[in-house]
Every structure is written in C-alpha cells, then in structure tokens.
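hiii, so i know i said id send this last week but things got crazy w the move. better late than never?? heres the sequnce for the chain we talked about at the cafe, plus the structure i predicted for it. fair warning i was half asleep when i ran it
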Amino acid sequence: MAQTYDGRRRGFLGEVTDAVSLRAAALVLGVLALQLGFITSYIGAFHQPEPDRIPLAVTSPDTQAADEALYRLDRLPGAPLEPRTVADEAAARRQIMEREVDGALVIDPRGTTDRLLVAGGAGGALAQALTEVVSKAEQSQGREVRVVDVVPGAAGDARGLSSFYLVVGWCVGGYLCAAILAISAGARPANTNRAVIRLGALLLYSIAAGLLGTVIAGPVLGALPGSVWALWGLGTLVVFAVGAVTLALQGLAGVIGIGLAILLVVVLGNPSAGGAYPYPLLPPFWQAIGPALPPGAGTYAARSIAYFRGNGVGGPTLVLAAWAVGGVVVTLACAVVRARSYRDGIHTAGPSPDG
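okay and structure toks below
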C-alpha cells in the first residue's frame, strides 16, 4: 500500500482519487466528447458529397432551346441543379462574378457542342461536380460540353483551398489567444477594466494576425490574389470575432468555455465552412449552419475578395460583426456581474458602514 505525506497508508483506489479529481475526470470526458464530435462532424460532412441545387444560369440565342434545357436540368433526379435562364452570355458571366450562380450553360443552337462556364476560384470540387452533372445531362441529349473556367484559381491555390486554410488559421489564433489570456490570469475577468484590457489585447493580436496571415497567403506564397487591405480587414475581423466569442464563453462557463469555443469553431464550424466541399456539396444540416458560423462566413468572404472583386462579402461580414459584437457584450456583462457579486460578498461578510 502507498504511504501518504502524513504517514497514513492508502490503497490504489485512494491514489487514483488523489491523482484524478472528479473535476478532472469530468473534463477528460468532455475532451472525449469533443474528439468524437470532431470525428463525427468531419466524416459526416465529407464522406459522401453530392451536388444539391447548384445555381446554374442557362442561356442561348434561341430562347426555345434555353427553355427546353432549363426544363430538363430542373428535373434531373435528386435535384442537383437550380437552373435559371438569363438573357445572354454577358448576363451569365456577370451573375457568376457577382456570386449569384456557380456556373452557366451557354447553348449553341446551330451545333452540338455547348459551353459550360465555371468558377474554379469558388472551389475546385464545386466546378468538378458541376461539370460532371451537366456533361452527363448533355450526353443524354447527344450533345457535348466544352468547359471554360471564367474565374480560375491562382497558380498557388490548389483547388481553391487556400482561402479556407487561411481562415482556419485565423480562427485557431482567435480562440488560442483568448484561451491563453484565460490561463494566464483566470478564465473570468474580475472586473470590467480587466475585461476591457483583455479585449484590447485581443484586438491588437487580431490586427497583427490578420496582416501577417494575409502577407503569407498573398505576397509571400502567391496563393491568394485580391486586395491585401481587404483581406487584412477580414482577417482582423475573423480573429477578433472568434476570440471575443471565446472570451464570452469563458466568462459564462469558466475554463469549460474553451471547449465550447472549440465545439463551435472546430467541430461545427470547420466542416460546414465550404472549404474542401462548397455549400452545394454538403449535407443539408451543414449547408444550413455553415454561413452563420465564423469559419464559413470567413471562407466565403475570403474567396469573394480573392476572386470575385469583393462581390458577396456583405452578408458574411455582417455575420462576423454580429459574433464580434455579441462576444464583446457578453464578456463585459459577465465581468459586470462578477464584479458586483464580489462587492456584494465583501459587504455581506465585512463590517457594516456604521461599525
């Protein structure tokens, strides 16, 4: 039997309870749940990607040919496409650039070869899936398809994944910075002054992380084109939003808030971000939550800045701003409540003002 510091002898079970407290055991079980959630979410989102209502413009000099193609494409088994007719090829290209559609079928009524316009910058997997679906549908009508990438990805941006990995890096930095602030000085700030200081430190970190990430992805590696200033601003917002949410969750739940932030950003946010497989290729649940979470909003906005002249960034920017403002408000509110509780405790335990 083992001997304790005060000379008493205890069995192995006693050593276990001393070495692993109930709180530690509960935290380990929480880590196990996060790990299983990670496995389930990633495999669940990626194991069987299928196209689901990919927006597609259809046009032809012969309006009857366009209408007939629209009818056929709209009734494909499983509804892989969401086709719509547009006036001409110029309108189709404009809608692709404005991120209203993910491709366009330009029908040649005088021949048997049509052109499919895709946007590789929106994700290689999406362009490939669209090509496969449309080619199969055209072959059933005895026609061929020539694919034209009107928004090609950069030479260093394999399959359009650089935007996703950049945003993932920003998100990791956001919650790690907030976690380190908690570990070094307590998960819950003691008063509003300390909460403001933490948020200020997080903002400075976000500015630096946004700039350095942009410089690495753009000028250094040549993986992402687009405005350095716009990507820098986006990166700052992504890092601050994730960090602020992490601080807020820590204010609500203590150190457990770090696990909740990982659940939100990593377990739920990353597989639904539209990175490896853009939204139209994900299962319905992941399609629904992706645009509302920081990784998804950040990835969509980064691709828009890099390849689509910033078109479509408005919605994702509002999502990120909402997370940032919500995180700040909750962090400050938790600090106010904690400071008030601390003061009330002192007044209750201490002497009365008259004594």
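btw The chain is about 60% helix and 10% strand. thought thatd interest u
miss u guys!!
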